[in-house]
Design brief:
Number of domains: 1
Strand content: 15-25%
Bound molecules: zinc ion
CATH architecture: Alpha-Beta Barrel
Structural class: alpha/beta
Order of helices and strands: EHEHEHEHEHEHEHEHH
Helix content: 40-55%
Shape: globular
Distance between the termini: 15 Å
Number of helices: 9
């Protein structure tokens, strides 16, 4: 085991892409220092699968459950079902998310307005339940941050933020956290963002199976170490130092226990 401990603050390892080899994937990640993952379930079937794993763990990695919805595909009934599930199970949850805005996939104003109104309801639920909120904000970073500030969101993670530092700045001023995926290896936008973000607001994520260090291959939580290396390189800070700070940031935001 390495000397540092890492937590994947946002991934989807319980999605069908990992049905063949989930245990091996988790084991490989554990061997390189990943002690915990925050799994974002985007449907209730997956959420139940994760809850079972939380109760009866099959690997050494600690699994935490977050429940949310892909902003592009919400219908009224799916929203209501998910909302009630979160209300009923909030004690078992570590966060709400991912939820938010996808202005890349949704271009029309009616669709965007709908996303904004669901997003606001998830923000108020997160405050009511005192759960952090993991935010998806594709081509909508500036709007998402504005809404979070207006709605007085308190514990926020902007995952794979795709905007400039200028768009992120209001979030930084409000103490929002930003998680950095392995796609930073080729994303100039993410490299520039990390350059300017304070280390005290940085977390690491893989978003597995997406956002791998090389385009179009399946991402896995062991690639978290690639995000770590890149952040250390860009910030010109010792790797162990970065790992420890980021671990502390993650525990603080999600109030994680037993790690
Ligand atoms: Zn995701």
């Amino acid at each position: 085991m390495p000397v540092y401990k890492l937590i994947d603050s946002h991934c989807h390892v319980f999605s069908h892409e990992f049905d063949e080899d989930r245990l091996n994937v988790l084991k490989r990640a554990y061997d390189i220092g990943v002690v915990g993952v925050i799994e974002s379930a985007l449907d209730l079937k997956t959420a139940l699968k994760v809850l079972r794993e939380v109760k009866y763990p099959s690997s050494n990695i600690k699994i935490y459950l977050s429940v949310g919805l892909n902003p592009c595909c919400i219908t009224g009934s799916i929203f209501n079902e998910t909302y009630s599930f979160i209300e009923e199970n909030f004690r078992e949850l570590t966060a709400i998310g991912e939820v938010g805005l996808d202005f890349y996939l949704t271009q029309d104003s009616t669709g965007r307005e709908k996303q904004i109104s669901y997003f606001k309801r998830f923000i108020s639920l997160s405050k009511e339940m005192n759960l952090p909120i993991i935010v998806h904000s594709r081509s909508a970073g500036k709007y998402a941050i504005q809404i979070l500030v207006e709605e007085k969101a308190e514990r926020v993670l902007l995952h794979a933020f795709d905007g400039s530092f200028k768009s992120a700045k209001l979030g930084v001023e409000n103490g929002f956290f930003f998680s950095i995926p392995p796609s930073i290896t080729y994303s100039i936008q993410k490299q520039r963002l990390v350059e300017k973000l304070p280390l005290d607001l940085i977390l690491l994520e893989t978003d597995s199976p997406s956002l791998s260090p090389v385009r179009n291959i399946r991402n896995t939580p062991e690639n978290l170490v690639i995000s770590l290396r890149e952040v250390a390189r860009i910030k010109k800070i010792d790797l162990i130092n970065v790992a420890e700070t980021v671990f502390r940031n993650t525990v603080k935001l999600f109030d994680l226990k037993n790690l």
